[in-house]
Design a protein that fits this description.
205 residues, Immunoglobulin-like, four-stranded antiparallel β-sheet, 50% strand, mainly beta, five-stranded mixed β-sheet, 2 domains, 19 strands
Length: 205
């Protein structure tokens, strides 16, 4: 059962009809990706807003030191960007498991068991010093990154569902002009991978 609505369980026989208390079903938000935020070096959790319920906020949980038990580490209102930086957990120490729930206008919270995503161990190749300007942008933006030896890099543009929308190989030099092309308005993750990995966020207006 994955349709959002108010449900009543009804049992009947020849004598009577018994109904349960109404239960509101909320479709849980789905985590799309967990990556490392280069500005903080911490885990960045990205999820997809879905469902028809009047959600007022999202609750972010991280697995505690006890396996299978989760602690709420943050809340974000529905109208905020669906990303959250975990400023406590260190991605260089271990992998972490996260879950997301939604709370609707009457205070009901979706089932925490409906989704989870585990991070990987921090990649030692990940580096900072990626400059993106302008950002946000309308037509094009320029990516600048250290590449003194003109090594080859691969550029990927990833949406909030984890889908790769752009995949370009053979980038050399220390700058690249990224054109909007078919990208819709919104928030995207970009990754330049070669001997090092540069990650950033872009916003298309």
């Amino acid at each position: 059962m994955d349709n959002e609505a108010t449900y009543i369980c009804q049992v009947s026989n020849e004598c009577e009809v018994v109904e349960s208390t109404p239960i509101i079903l909320i479709v849980a938000p789905q985590i799309c990706m967990v990556t490392v935020d280069l500005e903080t070096g911490k885990n960045l959790i990205i999820w997809e807003k879905k469902g028809l319920a009047q959600v007022i906020e999202y609750n972010i949980y991280r697995e505690s030191i006890v396996a299978g038990q989760y602690e709420r580490i943050g809340q974000l209102p529905y109208n905020a960007l669906s990303v959250f930086v975990d400023t406590i957990a260190d991605p260089s120490e271990q992998a972490w498991i996260y879950k997301i729930t939604a709370t609707e206008s009457e205070g009901f919270e979706s089932n925490i068991e409906d989704n989870r995503l585990k991070t990987g161990i921090y990649d030692s190749r990940i580096a900072g010093n990626l400059t993106i300007y302008p950002n946000p942008f309308n037509e094009m933006t320029t990516l600048k990154f250290p590449n003194p030896e003109n090594n080859l890099f691969r550029l990927r543009v990833i949406d909030l569902t984890g889908k790769i929308l752009c995949d370009i190989n053979g980038i050399s030099g220390s700058d690249y002009v990224l054109e909007r092309d078919d990208l819709e308005k919104g928030y995207y993750i970009i990754e330049l991978s070669g001997d090092k990995v540069y990650r950033g966020r872009i916003v298309v207006e």
